[in-house]
Input
Amino acid sequence: MLTESMEDYLEIIYRLSESKGYVKAVDIAEYLSVQASSVTRMIQKLDEAGFVKYEKYRNISLTPIGKRYGCFLVWRDNVLKQFFRTLDAGAGVDEQVEGIEHYITPHTMSLISGLLNYFKAHPERLEELRATRNDSDYPLCEDLGRLRAWEFRHNRDDA
Ligand code: MN
Output
């Protein structure tokens, strides 16, 4: 089974292979802000699990199953971010998605994707939803300042 970290690596490997056509450990290290040695260790794990092919001093390539999973992981990330933004989640969308993406089933993902498509086809329904929203609900959360998510909402510039 893939760990959260393996999923994150596989996602970035897929992104890099799609955008640049090749994947180097140094690019992954830069993208994830981690040491090259951590990247090497993780790439070896993914190789053993059959998701990538790795030979020292060579580019990293995805196996067919690695491609299939990578494609799903990128899609999952994009759909969840779009979903949160459609809900006007505000600050911390990327951080929230980074965590929850690993605990959501493909079935639930397809339901969320369906909802997004519905709102795309019927933008007036999304406007109706927004009009019914009560912004005064939010300050009720003031007592929950010790939650991790509080950081995402309040200590960032992109709020
Ligand atoms: Mn993640």
Notes: Residues 4, 8, 98, 101-102 surround manganese (II) ion (CB under 6 Å). The longest helix spans residues 64-86. The mean pLDDT is 90.
